[in-house]
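Re: that backbone. Tokens:
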């Protein structure tokens, strides 16, 4: 039987998951591919006694990436420096690559994909977004006949776990974050997760394959969940909304919006009911309409499943090349659209984004405050959808919650500045964006 040789670079949670998956499911993989899959090398800094002794272990990643007995290099070491060097080295040695490295691709994917095209190899990255949910394959291939209008998703499980606990158990952000770290959902330094950077990396990939634009992580608006208070979670619930940390990619008449931020969404929407560490991505496309894709967004099993799915696709590419003797056999373009057709359509800056808003004001219990506030909103072309005034605190301060209809961010920025200048307004206005996710 013909064989395919794999190198796994990195033996952390994901790398070990890949090795174990191949060991457990080797018969099924062989039946599906017609090839015997072998791991010939693993890249690791310390020798592992639990690895099959026939597999060569080495810390020399560059040598592994260029080895003659390697057909596909699986990069799961993470980071953006060594990983980039190794992947480029592998590509130049005509190796196909599978990676779970969303940060690397978000920053350097345009360069890496162009180099892969030049050398006639493929870089696959299903595991880089939403773990075991095959969202890359769905958008690149299954929805290829559709014009995609928007993509919205819960694409960071740590943030979703924190907000779910706050929503369902009335817990404070700091307490839930500490538990997430204890459970291994959040790193000791949770910045990438709670500040939206991880989700921003993933969103840049989704936007590129949805709209046919180059990767542009530097233009993704990222806002985290660290300022979400239990008070706002409770008020949102009373108004029929759930706060989720979402990534959005919208097609607008004058450009694309790429943004990650906390968002109020109606409790009736599908995404509002995705809880814990689960991920979900909703796609609105024509003619299909809305569709939702749900599952585990991280972990050894989910990520290894996505990695090996990419390996299986590459085996079919290799087999097709063997049948035609064409070393540069084309496959699905890396970013779903052929490179020369990638659009230079503008990505909109944050002040040109359009959405609804939840505003919470803390004001003195005085006559005319609400009238002044509604006048300022009206003067700035902002329509109010709902107002809720709570009972005064013991301090004599009154919370006022306002929901608005969609408006340009720059109009809202101006209105908030004017509201905060009122003498009766004692604290900065809390602003959380709001989306209905209607078709």
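Recovered sequence:
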């Amino acid at each position: 039987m013909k064989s395919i040789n794999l190198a796994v670079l990195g033996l952390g949670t994901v790398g070990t998951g890949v090795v174990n998956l191949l060991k457990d499911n080797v018969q099924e993989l062989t039946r599906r591919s017609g090839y015997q899959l072998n791991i010939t090398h693993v890249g690791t800094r310390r020798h592992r006694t639990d690895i099959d002794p026939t597999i060569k272990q080495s810390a020399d990643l560059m040598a592994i990436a260029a080895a003659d007995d390697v057909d596909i290099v699986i990069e799961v070491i993470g980071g953006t420096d060594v990983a980039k060097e190794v992947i480029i080295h592998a590509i130049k040695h005509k190796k196909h690559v599978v990676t779970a490295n969303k940060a690397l691709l978000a920053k350097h994917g345009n360069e890496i994909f162009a180099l892969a095209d030049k050398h006639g190899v493929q870089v696959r990255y299903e595991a880089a977004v939403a773990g075991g949910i095959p969202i890359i394959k769905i958008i690149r291939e299954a929805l290829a006949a559709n014009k995609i209008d928007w993509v919205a998703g819960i694409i960071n499980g740590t943030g979703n776990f924190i907000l779910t606990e706050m929503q369902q158990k009335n817990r404070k952000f700091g307490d839930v974050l500490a538990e997430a770290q204890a459970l291994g959902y959040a790193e000791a330094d949770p910045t990438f997760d709670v500040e939206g950077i991880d989700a921003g990396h993933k969103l840049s990939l989704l936007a590129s394959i949805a709209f046919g634009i180059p990767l542009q992580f530097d233009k993704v608006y990222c806002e985290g969940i660290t300022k979400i208070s239990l008070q706002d979670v409770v008020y949102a619930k009373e108004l029929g909304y759930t706060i989720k940390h979402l990534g959005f990619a919208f097609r607008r008449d004058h450009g694309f919006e790429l943004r990650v931020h906390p968002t109020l969404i109606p409790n009736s929407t599908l995404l509002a009911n995705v809880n814990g560490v689960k991920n979900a991505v909703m796609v609105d496309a024509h003619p299909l309409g809305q569709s939702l894709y749900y599952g585990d967004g991280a972990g050894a099993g989910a990520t290894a499943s996505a990695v090996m799915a990419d390996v299986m696709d590459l085996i079919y590419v290799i087999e097709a090349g063997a049948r035609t003797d064409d070393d540069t056999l084309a496959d699905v373009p890396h970013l779903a659209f052929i490179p020369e057709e990638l659009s230079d359509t503008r990505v909109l800056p944050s002040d040109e984004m359009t959405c609804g808003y939840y505003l919470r004001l803390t004001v003195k219990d005085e006559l005319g405050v609400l009238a002044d506030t509604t006048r300022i909103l009206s003067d700035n072309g902002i329509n109010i959808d709902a107002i809720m005034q709570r009972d005064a605190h013991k301090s004599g301060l009154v919370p006022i919650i306002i929901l608005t209809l969609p408006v340009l961010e720059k109009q809202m920025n101006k209105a908030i500045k004017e509201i905060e200048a009122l003498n009766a307004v004692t604290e900065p206005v809390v602003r959380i964006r709001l989306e209905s996710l209607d078709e």
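The chain has a mean pLDDT of 94. Residues 18 and 387 are 52 Å apart (CA to CA).
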